[in-house]
Automatic annotation (TrEMBL), chain B:
Gene Ontology BP, a term: amino acid transport
Name this polypeptide is given: ABC transporter ATP-binding protein
GO CC annotation: plasma membrane
Localization per Swiss-Prot or TrEMBL: Cell membrane
Length: 369, 336
């Protein structure tokens, strides 16, 4: 986390001095980012329906959820395990207010009314949960948000009036308008991509906006920020509100993706999966959660075949995930991104040393972003 | 006690009225009007006893959790896995040897050994990085859960209750009066009462050990300030290992208990992890009396809730947690 903090400190004055119009978007000068964006845009030409939806759209949806956790954990220092619960709540609300196969529960609103309602309610839910969680700090936050997530899971299992018990709500209607079925593979992929891009850039923008900088200050030294006149708890609750909105967006996409929602999708294990995704990817930069989600989805989809091919029991997929997670947590404090960065730095310092040996030193070393 | 009454007269009055009401509800024969309003007394008493005995089980799990947290500031999210591991070990022992008591001893020793290994191999290497430790315990709980699923499958196991504990006994509590004037007494499973008594004994022993012995003094000093304790020459790593072993062993014992009066299956680890989280949040982190109080409250709330408001039982537990967080964020009996 201190790594990210240093990065912002070094990037900001340079951006302000040299390219004020760009306001410090690092992607603009990064060719790799343009390549990734182009590949994502032409993905439907490359991938067929299975890969498009089951791999890439699912990755992006899980990535958005993990992004909301990354925002809280990376910039706010608050590890919240209830982001999936908020997404699940929003998904349930879409199913409850919108149209679904369970006509006795669903109110049958059109999607353009049900979705804003679901987003608003889920954001409210997450903000209230956050207001509870900010009463405590550090590891207590993990425990309280985990307890909220578990309570919601058991509640959906027991409540039949709204959440339809453990069967959940099935055949949720997806939007059709302008003559397009937006749940068809290609339009749906673009919706997911658009929302993911929106969330990604929103998080990146906020991390540089005064609010985000104040939030990072609160993360690093809450007492000092309080002494400077910032309302520490208000910043934290506002961070929860924003992260809840992001998670709620992902929840809407998820319920459209699977067309159903049941307590199994909001179980404690799934809540922890989101944490794993964010931590494996790296929680200091918004790209991390998406990398983590890609790894997770690829593992989840192909680990079975892979393990069987190695002659092992294919059902040990979770063991693989758990061991991978342990390895990442043990050896890198910042997930895959951290590993990549330390590898690059070693390469660079190695290059610098060899060029110094040839007379001139050119390696600067501080190349974040 | 008198200081509490002097400082909070209103609260003291409420507590006294609540205790009197609870005593009256348990001891008196209910008037017909009350039976019509909230059901029969037998149901109520059964729920109360189930709640108290469940509280005993929760206390066994949560006390180890809170002890480890109190001393090492280490949120061991793999605690539920230790519980389930102890339960499976207990099942294996009692199924192969037929001895219920032996299963407790072996479960305690084996889970304590796992705890020692965890402390030596994992936590010692990342002391003071509590977030990272928490992440590691999450990873460990996933790995353990899958290993146990691999070894034991997804079936339900129940540990055989020994013969001398099977069957209900009659308690001197009148549930109703027959029309002939003959009182009907409450019948309740003996094994649950024995287990509850055992958890009370364990709780008292822990309290005595913490407050009356030298090693207890060292542990309490470590809870307050472990750096200064280490500076005074205490071999703090040894204390850590001991406490971790004790906490893990308690979880193992709780696993055998839970396997006897409930059942063991994948998923129970998360259930009991959640229960101990809520218990220690309500009672106060790192406090053994807090764990006892929290376990009692949560156990009663869960059982009474599932009898009287079945669809919202879990919400009652949750609301208690929210209420405690709103009023006393550090927990009911925490000192901080």
């Amino acid at each position: 986390m201190s790594l990210a903090h240093d990065a912002h400190v070094t990037v900001r004055p340079a951006a302000a001095a040299q390219r004020p119009t760009l306001r410090g978007w690092p992607e603009i000068n990064n060719p790799a980012a343009w390549i990734v964006a182009a590949i994502l845009l032409i993905m439907p030409l490359i991938a067929n329906g299975f890969f498009l939806i089951e791999i890439f759209a699912t990755t992006l949806i899980l990535g958005i959820m993990a992004l909301s956790l990354m925002f809280l954990a990376g910039y706010g220092g608050m590890v919240s395990l209830m982001q999936l619960t908020i997404a699940g709540f929003s998904a349930y609300m879409v199913a409850v207010f919108g149209v679904s196969g369970n006509a006795n529960i669903s109110l049958g609103w059109p999607w353009w009314l049900a979705v804003p309602m679901a987003l608003a309610l889920a954001t409210l839910f997450g903000t209230l949960g956050g207001a509870l969680a900010v009463r405590t700090e550090g590891i207590y936050t993990i425990m309280i948000t985990l307890a909220i997530g578990a309570a919601f899971y058991y509640f959906t299992n027991q409540n039949w009036a709204i959440f339809n018990g453990h069967t959940g709500i099935n055949t949720v209607a997806t939007p059709h308008f302008w003559g397009v079925n937006w749940r068809a593979d290609i339009p749906f992929y673009y919706i997911v991509l658009a929302v993911a891009a929106l969330c990604y850039f929103a998080v990146e923008y906020i991390s540089r906006a005064p609010f985000g900088l104040a939030l990072q200050g609160v993360r690093d030294n809450p007492r000092r920020m309080a002494a400077l006149g910032f309302n520490v708890n208000a910043h934290r609750v506002a961070a929860y509100a924003f992260a809840s909105f992001v998670a709620a967006l992902a929840g809407v996409l998820q319920v459209w993706n699977y067309r159903q929602i049941s307590p199994g999708s909001v179980s404690v294990g799934a809540c922890i999966d989101i944490l794993i995704i964010a931590v494996v990817g790296g929680i200091t930069r918004p790209i991390g959660p998406f990398i983590g989600a890609l790894i997770f989805v690829l593992l989840r989809t192909f680990a079975l075949d892979f393990l069987v091919k190695l002659g092992l029991d294919g059902n040990r997929f979770r063991l693989l995930i758990g061991l991978g997670f342990l390895a990442i947590v043990f050896w890198s404090s910042d997930g895959v991104i951290g590993l990549w960065q330390s590898w690059r730095q070693r390469q660079r310092s190695g290059a610098a040393r060899s060029s110094e040996r040839h007379g001139r030193g050119s390696g600067q070393g501080s190349g974040h972003g | 006690m008198t200081r509490f009454v002097e400082r909070h007269p209103a609260w003291a009055l409420i507590v006294i009225v609540a205790i009197a009401l609870a005593l009256w509800l348990t001891l008196a024969v209910w008037p017909p009007g009350l039976e019509e309003a909230i059901g029969r007394k037998r149901v109520f008493l059964n729920a109360v006893f189930n709640g108290i005995t469940l509280g005993g089980l929760y206390f066994l799990v949560a006390s180890g959790f809170t002890l480890i947290f109190g001393l090492m500031r280490n949120v061991n999210l793999a605690h539920g896995s230790l519980y389930l591991f102890g339960g499976y070990v207990g099942y294996a022992i009692s199924a192969s040897t037929g001895s219920w008591l032996l299963s407790f001893i072996v479960a305690f020793i084996l889970t304590a050994l796992v705890g020692v290994l965890l402390q030596l191999i994992v936590f010692r290497r990342m002391e003071g990085q509590d977030l990272r430790q928490t992440m590691v315990t999450i990873g460990l709980s996933i790995v353990f859960a899958d290993l146990m699923l691999w070894a034991c499958g997804g079936d339900f196991y129940q540990i055989q209750t020994p013969n001398w504990l099977i069957g209900p006994i009659e308690l001197p509590l009148v549930t109703a009066v027959k029309s002939s004037g003959e009182p009907v007494y409450l019948r309740y499973p003996l094994v649950r009462l024995v287990i509850f008594a055992a958890s009370v004994v364990i709780g008292l022993a822990m309290w005595l050990a913490l407050n009356r012995t030298r090693i207890g003094m060292i542990i309490r000093a470590g809870v307050d300030d472990r750096d200064i304790l280490a500076a005074t020459g205490v071999r703090i790593q040894l204390v850590f290992v001991l406490v971790f072993a004790l906490g893990a062993g308690l979880a193992g014992i709780a696993g055998v208990v839970g396997g006897t009066f409930q059942s063991l299956s994948p998923g129970e680890d998360i259930r009991f992890l959640l229960a101990s989280l809520v218990v220690v949040i309500v009672g106060g982190m790192g406090s053994i009396p807090g764990a006892a109080l929290g376990a009692l409250i949560i156990g009663l709330a869960e059982q009474l809730g599932s009898v009287y408001i079945p669809t919202y039982a879990i919400v009652v537990t949750f609301l208690i947690m929210v209420l405690v967080l709103a009023v006393r964020p550090q927990g009911l009996l925490a000192r901080r």
